[in-house]
Amino acid sequence: MTRWARKRARNRVAHPPGLLQRLSERIRGREQLLVRPTSGIPLLLVTYPRGREMVARQLESAYTRTLSTLPRELTEPYASVLEALPPIAVVLLRPRNACTCLGHFHPAGTESRLTLRLAGDLGSPVAEIDLAYESIREWDPNPISSLAAGNLGSRLADLRFEAALLSVLLHELHHLAAPEEAEREIREASNNFYAGVVQEFVKRESGQDYGMHGRKGFGL
Ligand SMILES: [Zn+2]
Ligand SMILES: [Zn+2]
């Protein structure tokens, strides 16, 4: 083995998972977006890697606009969840989590310094979750047949992403609002929500209805 090959071999094992991502976030910094829904649901303080404002804006649009236009039977299960939360929730957006989960809720005492400081400054509890937006974008629990997708083309990927972003957001907030509820129930609710939202989007865009089959979960 040459000196360089030895060096390369050493370098290959040198990076714990997620280290480079955390390092580049650290170097580039993070930015914040305050998401203000008009209804009485919690404000979101979205923190995202610098240069990724578009994802934060997509989350804002899903939470402040889309959510209020969905049929009541889809949003009804989350009314009590959103009511039970503190008035503000911090959402840490990351491309991916080292553990590959789509998101996590952060129980009291495990929040980031940002959230703890904010809670201290406001004198109010602040909830915190994280969402891994690139993993959420790739998440595909209910593949849609090409027939059902009609001629939505690349628009379908955007619609799926918005539905998935909202579903994982609500899934993690559900954990915080109802800590005694089992993962199985919380996942069932968010899977149903996701399936219903995609169905609704496709119906709106293409005037078609279709059934969805098969369920997979979130990871956490
Ligand atoms: Zn995880
Ligand atoms: Zn969960």
Task: Give a written overview of the molecule.
By secondary structure, this protein is α/β, with parallel strands linked by helices. The protein has one domain (15-206). 53% of the residues lie in helices and 13% in strands. The protein is built from 9 helices and 5 strands. It has helices at 3-12, 19-28, 53-69, 72-84, 113-122, 133-138, 146-149, 155-177, 183-206; strands at residues 30-35, 43-49, 88-94, 103-105, 127-132. A 5-stranded mixed β-sheet has the order 1-2-3-5-4. The relative contact order is 0.14.
Topology record:
Elements (H helix, E strand, L loop, with lengths): L2 H10 L6 H10 L1 E6 L7 E7 L3 H17 L2 H13 L3 E7 L8 E3 L7 H10 L4 E6 H6 L7 H4 L5 H23 L5 H24 L14
Helix pairs in contact: 3-8, 4-8, 8-9
Bound molecules: zinc ion (2 copies).
Distance between the first and last residues' Cα: 43 Å
**Helix-strand pattern, N to C?**
HHEEHHEEHEHHHH
Which small-molecule species are bound to the chains here? zinc ion
**Radius of gyration, whole Å:** 19 Å
